[in-house]
Specification:
The chain has 87 residues and is mostly helical. The chain contains 3 helices and no strands. The chain has 2 domains: 49 residues; 31 residues. The longest helix is centred in the middle third of the chain and has 25 residues. The chain starts with 8 loop residues before the first helix and ends in an 8-residue tail after the last helix.
Length: 87
Amino acid sequence: MRTHMVLPDELVESIDSLVGKRKRTRFVQEAVREKLRRETLVAALEATAGVLAKDDHPEWDTTERVAAWVRESRRQSQRHPVRSDVG
């Protein structure tokens, strides 16, 4: 899809000096994709902030207990690998 955008001259000049005029579109596409990825991640983090309460997970009280919980979770995962042919 084609679209028309207005960008400040200095921004276009900076892009062109970095990647060249012939690669301007690809550069802007990649920049927009990266910005969308970041904004989507921020929105997901904001939407899920606070869903895990410390009081609900005493196994996460200290860094040592968290490390032990991670080790045990990994051990269990190794004992019961996820099957890729399911579903």
